Amino acid sequence: MNQNRVTEILNIKYPVIQASMSWITSAELAAAVSNAGGMGILGPNAGQTTLTIDSVETAERMRHEIRKTKELTDKPFAVQYFIPFPGDTQGFSSRVLQVIREEGIKNLLVLGMSLGNEAEEVRNLKNEGFTIIYRDLNPTVESAMNIEAAGADIIIATGYDEGGGLPVHAIGTMTIVPLIADAIDIPVLAAGGIVDNRGVKASMILGAEGVYIGTRFVASKECPASDISKQDILNAKTTDLVEFKAMPAWRSTPHKLSLELYNMDQNGASSEEINKRMGSIGGIRAGMLEGNLDNGINSVSNAIELIKDINSCKEIIEELMRDVAY
């Protein structure tokens, strides 16, 4: 069996990690990816359909999803931990982290926003014994070097081709991956616009030792995203997509709300105004989970047009990794 540093560190068969997408991960999705040889991740609101603003309930919901995932797989999986930001007065991150500790989860997908406290957080988490996959929402060579020094095990290099909240710096995946891979010694995962076998092979050539994939797993049978939003992915062309600045910027398929937000941006609306119109949850729950595309957004990568089918996670991973040397 092939092995590289990513598969060895995470104790998985294939260096394919499913992204920690808000609202549209679940125990079923994470377990399916892990059972297929990759690593599934439980992201924010994993397995949920209703919103809560209570931090204790949020943490207990995650506990339930962790336990459900354990029932569905005996393979490694991870949970997302968002480094706290100043507005987290209720302690959402700390309460979720405590549940992660109590449930014996050792693999963390750690998200940072370049607020200046990331290195200390990573150092403390590493001292607790966690295996850390680190993703900076605004990746740079400098941030990757700082996080490597703090003890992270794996760094995600996310290009502007990604779905979800877009990086501040519009650096493409084919640029950011080799820049970061050349600058650090720990393994790098490529992220952004990787949806097929060619994208995986190209990522490896660029210096990555694995891939971090979101949009392709949205178009999977096990993803809790609405069938409407999945079909929307199959129908949309890359040239159809619209971008608009909020907090952060977003890319979406073109429907009523996303077109309104795009037009607001084009007409000079502020990021705060756009974000307020979109809603504090980014429109993801309505658009992607519920399939209400007129009142939500379907946030996708630039490579959307390359996705042709809704497949099982096992089929997706087998296609991604066909004849890939690692």
TrEMBL record:
GO molecular function: nitronate monooxygenase activity
Pfam families: NMO
Entry's transmembrane regions: none
CDD domains per UniProt: NPD_like (cd04730)
Keyword list, A-Z: Flavoprotein, FMN, Oxidoreductase
Origin: domain of life: Bacteria
Role this protein plays: Nitronate monooxygenase that uses molecular oxygen to catalyze the oxidative denitrification of alkyl nitronates. Acts on propionate 3-nitronate (P3N), the presumed physiological substrate. Probably functions in the detoxification of P3N, a metabolic poison produced by plants and fungi as a defense mechanism.
Protein name as catalogued: Probable nitronate monooxygenase
